[in-house]
Amino acid sequence: MTWIRTVPLAEADEKLRRALEAQQELYPAEYAVPVHPEADPVAGIVASHSLIPEALYHAFATFGVLMDPELPLSRRQHEMITTVVSVTNRCVY
Questions:
Q1: pTM of the model
Q2: What is the pLDDT of residues 55-88, one digit of tens each?
Q3: Which residues 6+ apart lie within 8 Å of 41 measured at CB?
Q4: Segments making up each domain of the chain, as ranges
């Protein structure tokens, strides 16, 4: 397993906190509650971007914008596409 240094939320500076809050505002409401809560609310793939707040914001804000309910695909269609791509790529998450 590769180790990536991350900045825990408790140690985040203002720039990182703003990036996290701004990208989270774009996510669908159901993403507000984590499926697997962890001690640090910023975990996993998002935390791996914590050393570069600008990259964190742009990478994850893109996802939030792509999940906008005003777009023509339904949430169900998004999830189906994601599942097929994950299976095709033999991805475990």
A1: 0.73
A2: 999 999 998 898 888 899 988 898 899 899 999 9
A3: 9, 34
A4: 9-88
